[in-house]
């Protein structure tokens, strides 16, 4: 299944291997013409859900931050994975994932890494920091070291008081951000699931201590609802609770939202009660107060933070996997054939409608082009006049296009067109002049 999805992603321009012509760069991927639209639509839906409300503000912080940020956050000290090397084939493994890993020696295809470990081929585990280091300015010395951020969250924490005072928000309120994050993962795997460069969609909600568990519960429900409201199958989603003894030292509660990928359950978002850890640490390391002064109650406190931390790239992969369907579909001559269809929610679909002239004569191409010109300012549309109409439908099914509009001989008489819906394959006739209103309603796109 994963191979089919990776192959469709390449064939239809969703995702390409980074620097493919040079053999690729492990753990990095490029989004193609359809992929970038799907990714943007996911981020846009998240941005709307999170910031089109009065209690959340958005920001866009720099990727490079003061190095002390990462000392305060604990990343310099603790953001490590245990790593072992195979002395024989030189492959490198995460020591806590050996059970799932295969031997890196091509001569031993399919051999489990655990077997090599049992044979004593591995070095002792040593800690490896996952942050990418670089330098600011021309001198490559230790005073110039900065890191590519491994999470977007810190850009929010350090701007807490800037945003609070400039927007005149008072807890409970949140700050949301979408942006790139970088982790030098030891083993990248499963397509977009674990990569070295990825995007996060994070929101930190600042609340008065004592109200934190109430808000934690609220955000836990709300974030699950977001995935299902965009069509993700509820039976492929569940919560995974972090047991109290496995919680990060600063967390009071943590749940992951997991999706059932072809390789098993995998986290797509974490919801964490981070207590006052982050603001207290930044107060301690920067020497600047991070407390909120409540004018009305005349009290000062360090807010607790409820974090919702989703991967945009991982959500992309989950939406893609969830939408991928193979099924039998009837053909024009009464038989049936296999079709691959991406049942993406219309709001996420890269192309909203495709326009086809049934044949390339009798003025049908010209009418189709006029329809395309009328629709293009409102929706992402695609014109296709090549091949049998059935094949054109199949191409759009694979790209997840929810509507196909065909100009046929009846159009010449009454100016109506056929609109075929992707999932049900049902066709209805719609007046060409009413297409914008029809599509807008079906796509629920705000005017
Ligand atoms: N600020 C909290 C934080 O970053 P995390 O669980 O490390 O928490 C949050 O990451 C989300 O970011 C994950 O649920 C996942 O969707 C995404 N993510 C983390 N590491 C990733 C990687 N190497 N590749 C792709 N997505 C990743």
Task: Please summarize what this structure is.
The chain is of the alpha+beta class.
Shape: globular
Please provide the count of β strands. Answer: 23
Question: Which ligands appear in the coordinates?
Answer: glycyl-adenosine-5'-phosphate
Most strands sheet:
7 strands, mixed
Unreliable stretches covering 5 or more consecutive residues: none
Helix content: 25-40%
Give structural notes.
The chain has 447 residues and is of the alpha+beta class. The protein has 14 helices and 23 strands. The strands form seven sheets. A seven-stranded mixed β-sheet has the order 3-9-10-16-13-12-11, with helices on both faces. A hairpin with a 2-residue loop joins strand 12 and strand 13. Helix 2 crosses helix 10. The mean pLDDT is 94. Glycyl-adenosine-5'-phosphate binds next to strand 10, strand 13, strand 16 and helix 10.
Topology:
Elements: H1 2-11, E1 15-17, E2 29-31, H2 33-51, E3 56-58, H3 67-72, H4 75-78, E4 80-85, E5 92-94, H5 113-118, E6 126-129, E7 132-135, E8 145-148, H6 153-157, H7 160-167, E9 173-182, E10 197-207, H8 212-229, E11 237-241, E12 253-261, E13 264-273, H9 277-286, E14 292-294, E15 299-301, E16 304-311, H10 312-323, E17 324-330, E18 336-342, E19 353-357, H11 364-375, E20 381-383, H12 389-399, E21 403-407, H13 409-414, E22 416-421, E23 427-431, H14 435-443
Helix pairs in contact: 2-10
Bound molecules: glycyl-adenosine-5'-phosphate.
């Amino acid at each position: 299944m994963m191979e089919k999805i990776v192959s469709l992603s390449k064939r239809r321009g969703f995702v390409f291997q980074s620097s493919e012509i040079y053999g690729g760069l492990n753990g990095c991927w490029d989004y193609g013409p359809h992929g970038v639209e799907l990714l943007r639509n996911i981020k846009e839906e998240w941005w709307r859900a999170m910031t089109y409300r009065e209690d959340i503000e958005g920001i866009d912080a720099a990727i490079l931050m003061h190095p002390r940020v990462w000392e305060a956050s604990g990343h310099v000290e603790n953001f490590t994975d245990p790593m072992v090397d195979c002395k024989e084939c030189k492959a490198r493994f995460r020591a806590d994932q050996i059970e799932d890993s295969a031997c890196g020696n091509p001569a031993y295809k399919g051999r489990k890494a655990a077997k090599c470990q049992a044979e004593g081929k591995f070095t002792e585990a040593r800690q490896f920091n996952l942050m990418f280091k670089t330098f600011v300015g021309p001198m490559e010395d230790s005073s110039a070291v900065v890191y590519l951020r491994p999470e977007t969250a810190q850009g929010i924490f350090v701007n807490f008081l800037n945003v609070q005072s400039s927007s005149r928000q008072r807890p409970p309120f949140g700050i949301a951000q979408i942006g790139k994050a970088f982790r030098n993962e030891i083993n990248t795997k499963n397509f977009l699931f674990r990569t070295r460069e990825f995007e996060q969609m994070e929101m930190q909600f600042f609340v008065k201590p004592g109200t934190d568990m109430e808000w934690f519960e609220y955000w836990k429900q709300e974030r699950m609802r977001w995935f299902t409201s965009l069509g993700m199958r509820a039976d492929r989603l569940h919560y995974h609770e972090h047991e109290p003894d496995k919680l990060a030292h600063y967390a009071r509660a943590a749940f992951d939202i997991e999706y059932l990928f072809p390789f098993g359950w995998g986290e797509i978002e974490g919801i964490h009660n981070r207590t006052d850890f982050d603001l207290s640490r930044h107060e301690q390391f920067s020497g600047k107060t991070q407390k909120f002064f409540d004018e009305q109650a005349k009290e000062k406190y360090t807010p607790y933070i409820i974090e919702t931390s989703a991967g945009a790239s991982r959500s992309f992969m989950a939406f893609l996997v969830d939408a991928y369907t193979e099924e039998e579909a009837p053909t024009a001559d009464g038989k049936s054939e296999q079709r691959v269809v991406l049942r993406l929610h219309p709001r996420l679909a890269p192309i909203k409608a495709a326009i086809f002239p049934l044949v390339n004569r009798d003025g049908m191409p010209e009418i189709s082009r006029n329809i395309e010109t009328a629709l293009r300012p409102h929706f992402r549309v695609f014109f296709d006049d090549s091949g049998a109409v059935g094949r054109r439908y199949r191409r759009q099914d694979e790209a997840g296009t929810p509507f196909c509009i065909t100009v046929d001989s009846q159009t010449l008489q009454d100016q109506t067109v056929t609109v075929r819906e992707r999932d049900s394959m049902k066709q209805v006739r719609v007046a060409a002049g009413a297409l914008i209103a029809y599509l807008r309603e079906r796509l629920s796109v705000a005017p």
